[in-house]
Amino acid sequence: MANIVTFLTYRDRAEEAAKFYCSVFPDARITNTVPYPDIPPAPHPGAVMIVELDMLGQHYILLNGGEPFRFTDGISLAVECETQDEIDRYWSALTAGGGEPGPCGWLKDKFGVSWQVMPKQIAELVSRDPVRAKRVMDAVMKMGKLDLATLQRAAQGRAS
Question: Per DSSP, which regions of the chain are E strands?
Fold first, then answer.
């Protein structure tokens, strides 16, 4: 049976990224590392070409693809969090060491990968009632890191 796997192409830091993600997500683990064959375009003997990673129940393949590869904001990895503590922890960890906070719960990690750190209940907060959805989205648009309590108050129509 076919499977869809997220495949991320780094210039040359796939192994470093995988180790970083293992430090951020408690259940993450590297499941396989494949070196480049000793033929061009191998950067040097023993260089890592592919790293396979399991993280939060998903399988990822990370590739060192060389100079032409860059990440864009057109795709992101979303971390659905149960609590504000989780939001705070993942936000801090993923922006550490050179990551960049962004608007509306978005950030870039130090490798340039875009992430969304958001409450698991965000879809519920912006569904059902367009007036409620507007209040919640207005609150989201004013934030960098999302604040769950503020979003819940906005959904209930209470001032922040």
Answer: 6-10, 29-35, 48-55, 58-64, 77-81, 100-101, 106-108, 114-119
10-residue stretch averages of pLDDT, the chain, 160 residues long: 94 96 97 90 83 96 92 94 98 98 98 97 90 96 97 86
* Per-residue model confidence (pLDDT) at position 39: 78
Q: Is the domain of 17 the same as that of 52?
A: yes
Q: In terms of residue numbers, what domain contains 159?
A: 71-160
Q: What pLDDT score does 46 carry?
A: 82
Last residue of one domain, picked from the residues 15, 35, 69 = 69
**How many structural domains compose the chain?**
2
pTM of the full structure:
0.91
- Shared domain for 85 and 47, answered yes or no, is no
Q: Which of these three, 69, 87, 104, is where a domain ends?
A: 69
Decide if 28 contacts 56 (C-beta within 8 A): yes
Question: Phi, psi at residue 28, to the nearest 5°?
Answer: -70, 145
